[in-house]
Amino acid sequence: MRALIVDDEPLARAGVTVRLTQFPDVEVIGECGDGPSAVEKILELSPDVVFLDVQMPGMDGFEVLRALPNQDLPSVIFLTAYEQHALRAFDVHALDYLLKPIDDEKFGRAVQRARQVRETDAKLRMSDRILGLLGESSRRYVSRLPVRTGSRIQVVLADDIESIAAAGDYAELHCGAHRHLVRETMTSLEQKLDPSKFLRIHRSRIVRLGCVRELHALDNHEYLVKLSDGSEHRSSRRYARGLDRWLSLKAT
């Protein structure tokens, strides 16, 4: 079983590594001290299980999982210093978590459950539980998205994205002169991005509202949306209500 350890405290990472030496079938394939590195390593290495700190500066454990494509969610053992009363959501979704300071007996049980989750059906159920947990935790939208550039994983800031276009089974992020493909659906990206900054105007197009420079009303309650890079995108009637709401807020 291949494990990745993510914690911003070096001593905490070392503690998990030492405990894992008791399990001959577990190989530690990497360590990360921050969220962006964790996203890159999870996509690059595809670990069987991730020991993931919940509370990290800049990009916490929940945001790490939100930044990943849903189909790439790993099995997770959370590391947390939360008080017991704050862990109800973990209990509801039957996710493994270890409360700091870590208890050796509970650590062993968590590793044993991680072994069981390696089976396909169990892993699918674990992904569903993680998605449920993310839906119940305090809502935070992604500030970064991982993209593949050749053999490398690059992290793109959401604030650098001007628009997003559907591209078959992928989505294309438009960032100035650069284009990046991500293995995400338009719907999943729409849910992950902050709606105060991004708006879906067509089933195949999302725009960053800060880049909108002109709107031209067309027939059938559609708009022609012109962005700061000079590109023009036609909205559809289905998403016209969102543009209407945005226009009314701009007018107040």
Please state how the strands of the largest beta sheet are arranged side by side: 2-1-3-4-5
Computed over alpha carbons, the radius of gyration is: 21 Å
Instruction: Give unreliable regions as ranges.
Output: none
Tally of contiguous helical segments: 8
Largest sheet: 5 strands, parallel
Helix content range: 25-40%
Broad shape: elongated
Would you tell me the structural class of the helices and strands? Answer: alpha/beta
Q: Between the first and last Cα atoms, what is the distance in angstroms?
A: 57 Å
What is the percentage of strand-forming residues?
A: 25-35%
Mean pLDDT: 84
**SSE string, helix = H, strand = E?**
EHEHEHEHEHHEEEEEHEEEEEH
Number of strands: 15
Describe what this molecule looks like in 3D.
The chain starts with a strand and ends with a helix. The radius of gyration is 21 Å and the shape is elongated. The model has no long low-confidence stretch (mean pLDDT 84). Helix content is 33%, strand content 31%. The chain is of the alpha/beta class and 252 residues long. It has 8 helices and 15 strands.
Task: Give the secondary structure arrangement, pairings included.
Layout: E1 2-6, H1 10-20, E2 27-32, H2 35-45, E3 49-53, H3 61-67, E4 75-80, H4 88-92, E5 96-99, H5 104-117, H6 120-136, E6 144-149, E7 152-157, E8 163-167, E9 170-175, E10 178-182, H7 186-192, E11 198-202, E12 205-208, E13 212-217, E14 223-227, E15 232-234, H8 240-251
Helix pairs in contact: 2-3
